[in-house]
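**User:** Once you have settled down, spend some time on the protein underneath, comparing sequence with structure tokens, and judge whether sequence predicts the tokens.
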Amino acid sequence: MTTWTFAALLHDVLEDTRTGYDELAAAFGERVARIVQENSDDMTLPKPERTRGRLAAMSKKSREARFVVDGRYIRVYGDDTA
């Protein structure tokens, strides 16, 4: 599997589990953990703020993190161009 594949599969692990960044990095490597962290929301914020923050941060994400999030949106919302 590629780094992007692992990151895509694990994209919610930091938000939805008690797994921390260091534990994720030890199991899957720093690169995967960094991509997952870039795509993780701060769950202490209200949902509207998380959404605004996610959109505002999009242009600052690494190419790898954007690739993962783009794939997620295609999966969730479908690809109308096909």
Q: What stands out?
A: Residues 3-77 form a domain with the Hypothetical protein af1432 fold (CATH 1.10.3210.10). DSSP finds six helices and no strands in the chain. The chain has one domain: 3-77.
